[in-house]
Amino acid sequence: CRFSRRYVLCEVVSEDPRCRQCIEDRAMGLAVRDAIGRVHGDYGLACCSISFTVKYLNAYTGTVLLRCRKDSYRLLCSALPFVRHLESRGQRYACVLNTLHVGGTIRTCQKFLIQYNRRQLLLLLQKCTNEEERQSVQTSLLSCSLTEGQSQSGDEEDDGDTE
């Protein structure tokens, strides 16, 4: 039997630059589960834990992709603001999870992330102070594209319906 899923794209926001380099899938999953348990109790934790997983985590950009069942994604999203810290390797880092997008497939989240990063790079381009910075940002901006090879990678899980 196949269940509909939702993918929640988040970014880790922290004032401590060491936080992003130290986050791991397991630590992220534990922090989110802990927040769900505190906010929604055992019932909410049980509902969200059925299919919950950290599908993708990029420590350099602070991007996190979480997967859960369609019928419990609202519980997950409502608990994300209550993640206040991540624990990794015996260290505790203060952070906040900012929800960027909720999608029905990994591919829709990828497309959103490309557009989001492009907008962020345009904002950086406006704030550049010299030509060297401007060239660096323009190069990054031009490299923001989803190629055909990436879209056929097989990581996409399409459940055929959207909300």
What does it look like?
Residues 154-163 have a biased composition (Acidic residues). The chain is an alpha+beta fold and 163 residues long. The chain folds into 2 domains: 1-104, Alpha-Beta Plaits, CATH 3.30.70.3250; 106-146. Helices cover 45% and strands 23% of the residues. It contains 6 helices and 6 strands, in the order βααββαβββααα. The chain has helices spanning 18-22, 25-49, 73-79, 106-126, 131-142, 148-151, and strands at residues 5-13, 53-58, 63-69, 85-88, 91-94, 96-103. The strands form 2 sheets. Strands 2-3-1-6 form a 4-stranded antiparallel β-sheet, with helices on both faces. Strands 4-5 form a two-stranded antiparallel sheet. A hairpin with a 2-residue loop joins strand 4 and strand 5. Helix 2 packs across helix 3 and helix 4 runs antiparallel to helix 5. The longest helix is centred in the first third of the chain and has 25 residues, at 25-49. It is globular, with a radius of gyration of 17 Å. Residues 148-163 have low confidence and may be disordered.
